[in-house]
Amino acid sequence: MQPNESARPLSRPKRIAQQAFTALEHFLHVEAASGIILLAAAALALIWANSPFAHSYHEFLESPLTFGVGGFVFAKPIHFWINDALMTVFFLVVGMEIRREMHDGSLSDLRQAALPLAAAIGGVAAPALIYVAVNHGSDAVRGWAVPTATDIAFAVGVLALLGRSIPSSVRIFLLTLAIVDDIIAVLIIAVFYSAGLDYSGFVLAGAGVVAVVIMQQIGIGRAPAYIVPGVVIWTGLLISGVHPTLAGVVLGLMTPVVATSRHERVLVELSQAADHVRETEVTTGHDFDQLEKPLHTLRVAQRELLPPVVRVQWALHPWVGYGIMPLFALANAGVTLTGIHLAEIETRWILIGIAIALIVGKPVGVFVISWLLVKIGACRLPPEMTWGGLGLIALLAGIGFTMSIFIATLAFVQPDALNVAKLGVLIGSFMAGCFGLGWGVMYARRQAG
43 and 135 in one domain? Predict the structure, then answer.
């Protein structure tokens, strides 16, 4: 009789590969599902903001929310807490994704990352140039970065609708491109959309960073312990004039990517605790006391076996995907259409520039740069990737919802210009999603056939 193949222990490389694919499946599942919720939240915001109850929408967002300790009181509207506080957690997850990819993911090998890296740069440069060309000579040119970002949740959500006939190389390429896109977006926000800098704030933020380093050195591994220094960094960046959400990126990049050095010892303790639990007979309520210590050991072992960056990201990812991003969409996608005056030349060209940049600029930038590098032999398409698959990625890259609207809130102060910019993002992202879905259906049929 042949031994059961599934019972054989996996070699270390196979075990690592299996863990990587499990993490990827979890990531894709959350992103795809959150993309649907994000779409529903955006639709609800649009309907609410243009209904007879529109006043309640704006009153809700402008309602003050106050936090205070003793004589210190900090009061800001709900809109601020969503965009500047909760979105810090979103950027924390982004920072951890970047950290993981740079350590042992698609960004750890320059040869593997070269093509999606170049494609992302092309996907930022082309729409920015189109927008500047359309709005050249006006104050609206400040919004050049609005159409440069890709919304990973929506893009992966559309890809998920196409089923499993889409090769995994297409999904991985899209994720890598979107992560590089996030890195560029973070740099753009830090460099181009920070107010007049107050360097005293950097001293406070630096103190928070030093506190994080010290806590890591003395072995504090519980994530809640880092909330206080995280708040210190966030406050310092807020005072300095740099957008405070970048505190999340700082913390994400500082999160350790290697599990505890007690790995082998932890495995022994885990085995002993599991044996203790298995051998303990529980017949009365007092017998549960015997399980307290081994169960505690199991909980600690779980924390120490997983790298902190993985453990925290897994814990936060559903909250971000199902909670924070839909809240952001609800708070920012409510464009009052009756208040938009497209008769004004400047506002009209803001909308046109953003929409064209997302629908045309993004795909052209991603595809043309990739095509040129492959043709001159500088890069190669990944295995199982075809030009049709790259075309699908290029079209989906034009979905720029979350990060594009976020940058728009930083680029435009005037409500009229901001509303038009948001509408341009919604139109451009919707059309890019439709074109991507249409092309993806044809591509999937060819792959299945």
Answer: yes
Q: Which of 286, 305, 324 is the last residue of a domain?
A: 305
Rounded average pLDDT over 44-62? 92
Q: How far apart are CA 190 and CA 247, in angstroms?
A: 11
Please say which residue of 305, 320, 336 terminates a domain. Answer: 305
Q: What is the pLDDT of residue 5?
A: 43
H or E segment to which residue 243 belongs: none
pTM as predicted: 0.76
> Is 85 contained in some domain?
no
- Phi, psi angles (nearest 5°) of residue 304: -85, -20
Same domain, 346 and 427: yes
Distance separating alpha carbons of residues 161 and 2, to the nearest angstrom: 40
- Looking at residue 313, its pLDDT comes to 86
Share of the chain above pLDDT 70, in %: 80
Q: How many helical (H) and strand (E) elements, i.e. helices and strands, does the chain have?
A: 19, 2
Contact (CB, 8 A) for 37 and 322: yes
- N-term to C-term CA, the chain: 38
- Please, are residues 385 and 170 in contact by the beta-carbon 8 Å criterion? yes
Same domain, 364 and 295: no
Q: What residue numbers bound the domain in which 277 lies? A: 262-305
Task: Please return the burial class of 221, using the count of CB atoms within 10 Å of its CB with bins 0-12, 13-18 and 19+.
Answer: middle
Determine the pLDDT at residue 343.
Answer: 67
Total number of domains in the chain: 2
Least Cα distance to 441 among 391, 383, 366, 381 occurs for 391
